[in-house]
Amino acid sequence: MSSLTASTQWHQRSKQYLIQGNYTQAATLYEKAIAAEPDVKSHYWYLGLILLLQGQEIEGQTTWFMAMVEGEPEQVELWNTELLGILQTEAERRKALSEDSVAHKIRQQIKEIFPQEINNLLHLVQLAIKLEIYTEEYLTQLGVLEILKSKLQLEVDFDLLMQILRNVLDEAPLQASSIELAEACLPYIQDNTLAFLSAILGPAVEIAYSQRQPGIAASLCELYLRLDADNTELLSHLAAFYQNAGEYDKGIETAELLYSLVDKLPDKIFANRQILRGLMSAGGRWEEASSVTQRQESLMVSLIEDKSTQIEQIQVLRL
Question: Is residue 316 in a domain?
């Protein structure tokens, strides 16, 4: 029997025991495999994983370390990559089985070995939220914010990053670290501005109205303005957030910008209404409010007379 065939058979039998949760049998087989094939490093990686799953973290780490101790730097780098792949695969398998605590344990171990592996850290955040162990300090403790803000050339899973941002904003919308995470995401947005808008706008509305913190909601929206200062959907919400927070001048200015950017009559009416709302709330600007009211009446008449205007559902709601 060739060594390749033998290794494959060792792995297949041991993997079956691993899937069945029979860690003792799996560990025994890998110990025999190591004795028979001491140069096959994957045996050590899987044995260490099984020891980890048995709660023997130190023994698992020692198994990995002893397999690498005499390797050259290039070999150790290759072996680390192999080990990372095995641990990530098992973590994903456990997540698919809804075994979140086991997946969290494996990813914690990945963090110990590869502390800069940002995608693993993002997975840890997601698992912490699901396991209800997430705290305000969690992002800082993991180093997520520091790594995202670093000048390192990171290969960030963008979809995962946006998912985690939404998860964090849903879980802890009022925490300063949540807004800090949103800001730390900005360098990775590139051309995916709509994905970022989708991640923050829903939570911003929730923060402004359900949590009654329009100032925080405005701060979150201001981050998006760095990417796209003329997004009318965001500006329509931001004008209201400012006004509800008592920042009337900003609210009026934002509504006026919105009015200048839209061209359809229903949108003009809504934007003009936002201006009027700000002027009425601010007080002392009655002359301006009167002028804007007259314009609103004129716009409404035009809409009524223009039978050809196609009005979308969101425009109907705003009207």
Answer: yes
